[in-house]
Structures are given as C-alpha cells and as structure tokens.
Amino acid sequence: MQLIKVLLLAITTVQAHLNGKSEEKDWSATRQTKNANTKQGIENPTVADIRCYSSKNAANVMTVPAGANIHYISTQQVNHPGPTQYYLAKVPAGADVKTWDGSGAVWFRFSTTKPSVNAQKQMSWPGQNEYKTPNTTIPVTVPDGDYLLRVEHIALHMAMQANKAQFYLSLVSQVHLLLCQEPTKALIQEYW
C-alpha cells in the first residue's frame, strides 16, 4: 500500500506528502480554507461552507493510488471529542478538479472514526488531542479519475444543545486516483 501524508489546515501552513515527498509549497494541492488562520468551526451543516469552507483553489493535483493510506496533519490540535470523517467527490466530465466547487449530491463518505470506552466508562475518539487525523484508506474500489478529497472533524462537546455540534477541518485536497475497479455506491447526503 502506498502512504500519503497530507499536511493541512488550521493555523498557518499546509503541505502534502506523497510517499515521503513534499508538495512544492504549502497549500499546493490542498485548498486553503477561509478559516485557516482561525479556530472557527461551522455550526450549520446546511450552509455551502460545509463542503469546502469557501476555500481558495489550489494550483496542483496529487496523484494517489486507490488503496492509499491517508491522514492530515495540522498546526493546530483537534482537541474536541467527536468523529473524523473522510469523503470523496468525483469531478464531473468536462469540469476541472482545480476549480470545481464540489456542489451537488456527489460526495460519498468512505471513513468514519468511532469512539472507544475505557474501564472507567470514559469515552475517547481517535485523533482527539492530536495534530494528526486518524489514518484511513481510500477504498480500492474507487475508479480512476479526478476527485476532491474532504476531511471533517465533528466536535460534539456542545452537541447536547440544538445546532451546536461544530464542524472543523472541512477542507479539500485535489487528487487524481489510480486503479480502476467497480465502485461501491455509498452516497451520503446528510448535509446537503
């Protein structure tokens, strides 16, 4: 399996690594979000920002094999309890991965973290209080093509109140996936 390390978000810089090679510069293939220099999350999952957080387009595209292990590293900790989720959206024919906004019911979730509970019945989440999101694998069943790869962390510390779950790291990397096989259909339209 190939290993891709995508350094992203939060407070200052982002840089992608593919098999140990760095991107040319920060935010090269990962779109810089408008909240990159703040700790601002999103509380309304119906706004367009949930998709790409009004990010700037990136100049490059990373070539990644389906089946690659991925994670994101931030200069700011993911310190609230809650799941981390990864999504892909295939760029439509005739659209450019560098400029497509990811709109529509085109995203499918391929990974969600689950909590663990210790003997004292304390719950913890993978990636909590870490700078690195949990590792996941892009399914080998994803067909060739250009995709937007999105990660989000849902902070649940205020979720006991209506509309107070907070969505973080809602950002996108531009990738070209290799290894064509039949896709597994798993469209998730929870937020759109």
TrEMBL record:
Name one process (GO BP) from the record.
cellulose catabolic process
Looking at the Swiss-Prot or TrEMBL record, what is one Pfam family this protein matches? AA9
Per its UniProt record, what Gene3D superfamilies does this chain match? 2.70.50.70
Origin, by domain of life?
A: Eukaryota
Signal peptide annotation: 1-16
Query: What InterPro entries has UniProt attached to this entry?
Result: AA9, AA9_LPMO
Task: Reply yes or no: does the keyword Protease apply.
Answer: no
What this protein needs as a cofactor is: Cu(2+)
Domain named Auxiliary Activity family 9 catalytic: residues? 16-170
What are the entry keywords? Carbohydrate metabolism, Cellulose degradation, Copper, Disulfide bond, Metal-binding, Monooxygenase, Oxidoreductase, Polysaccharide degradation, Secreted, Signal
**Where do transmembrane segments lie in this chain?**
none
What is the annotated localization of this protein? Secreted
- Name any GO cellular component annotation: extracellular region
Q: Does the keyword ATP-binding apply?
A: no
The EC number(s) given in the record are 1.14.99.56
* MF GO annotations: metal ion binding; monooxygenase activity
What is catalyzed by this enzyme? Answer: [(1->4)-beta-D-glucosyl]n+m + reduced acceptor + O2 = 4-dehydro-beta-D-glucosyl-[(1->4)-beta-D-glucosyl]n-1 + [(1->4)-beta-D-glucosyl]m + acceptor + H2O
Q: Which family does it belong to?
A: Belongs to the polysaccharide monooxygenase AA9 family.
The record's section on PANTHER family has: ENDO-BETA-1,4-GLUCANASE D (PTHR33353:SF10), PUTATIVE (AFU_ORTHOLOGUE AFUA_1G12560)-RELATED (PTHR33353)
Protein known as: lytic cellulose monooxygenase (C4-dehydrogenating)
* UniProt organism field: Phaeosphaeria nodorum (strain SN15 / ATCC MYA-4574 / FGSC 10173) (Glume blotch fungus)
